[in-house]
Amino acid sequence: MTKAPNASAGGPGRIGVLGGTFNPVHLGHLRLAEVLSESFSLDPFIFIPSEIPPHKTVAGLCPSEVRLEMVRLAVADNPRFKVSDIEVRRGGTSYSVETLDALSREHGAGTEIFFAMADDAFIEIDTWKDWERLFTLAHIIVVRRPEGPGKPPETMLPVEVREAFCYSPEVDAFTHISGKHVYFRDVGALQVSSTQIRGLVAGGRSIRYLVPETVVTLIEQRGLYQYPDPGAR
């Protein structure tokens, strides 16, 4: 279960989704999306900045329209990457179950949605709104990271729903009774964090080669992240 991501069979109607605050977006986000797009034949791959994140402090969070602009600048040169303002337009707290439900209706039953998240987020999925429905709305790609929890995949599935899954060796994933899969993948993405970047900016240090140049320019022009991050831990 620690092997590199294997390509799934290609076909029409396979979209990738990565949500987050993107405060700011960085090259780790872009590299992750690139690897997953290739590995799972996803086109488009959609970045969805949140309006108000339910599991993170809003202290030090740039306004959503600024974060949207940063993500649009970051993905502008990749025709496979798209940005959705669905959570910003909806307003209020951004819940993934509402977003995936809306995307499912928008794209129709013939489209498969692949929802990517980090392993540290997945182990807390049972604290999310209507979390059990998430397994019926999309395939979930759990990205394993060196600094993550490091638990065996089968123990990361919430106890309450484990009986609803069985391991499917042909796709190297856990299959839900709905037919959706939960994949655990080591993708070798860049180890960069938005918290790290905000700290560098506040300390007057360079963030080149961590953030797209267009985003570096916007951060400098707007004077973003110039002060110590009250949301850093």
Structure description:
By secondary structure, this protein is α/β, with parallel strands linked by helices. The chain has a single domain, classed as 3-Layer(aba) Sandwich (Rossmann fold). It has 9 helices and 8 strands. Helix 2 packs antiparallel against helix 9 and helix 4 runs parallel beside helix 6.
Which key features would you list for this structure?
single chain, disordered N terminus, globular, 233 residues, Rossmann fold, 33% helix, 9 helices, alpha/beta, eight-stranded mixed sheet
Break the fold down into its secondary structure elements and pairings.
Layout: E1 14-20, H1 27-40, E2 45-49, H2 64-75, E3 81-83, H3 86-90, H4 96-107, E4 112-118, H5 119-122, H6 131-137, E5 139-144, H7 153-156, E6 165-168, E7 173-176, E8 181-186, H8 194-202, H9 213-222
Parallel strand pairs: 1-2, 1-4, 2-3, 4-5, 5-8
Antiparallel strand pairs: 6-7, 7-8
Helix pairs in contact: 2-9, 4-6
